Amino acid sequence: MRSAYEAETVRAAERELMARLPEGTLMGRAAAGLAAAAAELLTRVYGARVVLLVGSGDNGGDALYAGARLARRGAGVTAVLLAPERAHPGGLTALRRAGGRVVRGPGGGAAEIARADLVLDGITGIGGRGGLRPEAAGLARAARESGAVLLAVDLPSGVDADTGEVPGEAFRADATVTFGTYKPGLLVDPGREHAGAVRLVEIGLDLPEAPAVQALQYADVRALLPAPSAESDKYRRGVVGVVAGSARYPGAAVLAVAGALHGGAGAVRYVGPAAEAVLARFPETLVSAGPPARAGRVQSWVVGPGIGENAEAVAEILAADVPVLVDADGLRHAEAAAVRARTAPTVLTPHAGEAAALLGTGRAEVESARLASVRALADRFGATALLKGSTTLVAGPAGGPVRVNPTGTPWLATAGSGDVLSGLAGSLLAAGLDGLDAASVGAYLHGLAGRFAADGAPAHAFQVAEALGAAWRDVRGE
Ligand SMILES: NC(=O)C1=CN([C@@H]2O[C@H](COP(=O)(O)OP(=O)(O)OC[C@H]3O[C@@H](n4cnc5c(N)ncnc54)[C@H](OP(=O)(O)O)[C@@H]3O)[C@@H](O)[C@H]2O)[C@@H](O)CC1
Ligand SMILES: [K+]
């Protein structure tokens, strides 16, 4: 599991550790890791032109000490100081002793930045507040225009460490070296896309059990995947019921069933007006025409994709005492009170627009505050909320760490791909995973399948469903 902690937690762990170590040890560890990463990016350190953008806090101190290390290895290092009187004194002395140059920014340093091979962003780290101030923003722009490799120290300046929000201008890095732990802002968009490739440098922090944000890794997903045993029958593996599609949109039903068939349940029941289209593609589906309550036994329901105005079906499904996943059209008909009243798990899977409607806000507000939005949804509905997007987020009903999906790909932004995810995650619910696990494992497999299906070229939703088998095998290491 990859874990990310908020700035306050990091500071508390830092205080605790610093009390036991000689002064400067932590910054020394940070700077050593940073310099090593910088050297790798440069390939040849001797003779390389390195510029440090140095703010007034310890983030600038890290940059200065790392710059000193690079200068000792023969790099030409120039520090541009945003607040010359407040720049880290120890770091400045170290850099000067190593032969580095210091210029007063933000006016100075333009020529050095333009000719740089590598720029280190030490403007702000976890102490930054709001977007970059105008002087700092000017330097960040100059760095971007220079064509140098851009390396952020701890966090791209201007990105909110705790949320990934980017309230104004921010540094856009090719890579980020972060210290002690990941920060939520490095994993959640729009912060994540400012960070580039992230490398973690351990500095020995002792962190609490529950992080703010976590990302499943292969081994976590492998451990969570349902595996049939010798005595499994279809009910033990789980039966998932799918209420999707309409005369107008039969395709949504086919895609949701395709996802469900790949989710590990023992059987899929389909209820709705698209039975013919579903059977034509998947003869193994158990179809019925009556109301969901008479469809036979299921261990979970998926309701919503392509159902249009069928609010009745949603109300009926929400009244069932099995896990329920509500997606797409179904979300418009899901009353918060009805969802809250349920005792079995509920999973809601909106994209940003649908989440905005559920929260009574705008799409842009959801996109710019994804972490807060997914938490608010889970809280308001007392349910697991999965917010789709470039970094899909999953929040559980009881608070706790939010899961961010690491396998997403822009290729997944294609019509019908969400229908596949709803069937898949619903099937994982039927197989016995709880809401948070079903949604986050579903998102993980779905992202992998999207990558496999696309493989560098556009893929459509049905291909994503078909690639789910390969995603399972990949995760299981087969
Ligand atoms: N914790 C740890 O374990 C370790 C932490 N370490 C390092 O320390 C870093 C945290 O250092 P920190 O606390 O000194 O804060 P930091 O991020 O440098 O920024 C504060 C300064 O920025 C300024 N400023 C604020 N907003 C701004 C804006 N929008 N635009 C422009 N400027 C802005 C603000 O100025 P002021 O508001 O005071 O005028 C203030 O002076 C951490 O990220 C890591 O790199 C490592 O060395 C090892 C272990
Ligand atoms: K930074």
TrEMBL record:
(6S)-NADPHX binds at residues 58-62, 125-131, 154, 252, 306, 351, 419. Catalyzes the dehydration of the S-form of NAD(P)HX at the expense of ADP, which is converted to AMP. Together with NAD(P)HX epimerase, which catalyzes the epimerization of the S- and R-forms, the enzyme allows the repair of both epimers of NAD(P)HX, a damaged form of NAD(P)H that is a result of enzymatic or heat-dependent hydration. Homotetramer. This is Bifunctional NAD(P)H-hydrate repair enzyme. Residues 217-475 form the YjeF C-terminal domain. Gene3D superfamilies: 3.40.1190.20, YjeF N-terminal domain (3.40.50.10260). K(+) binds at N59, D121, S157. The gene is nnrD. Residues 10-211 form the YjeF N-terminal domain.
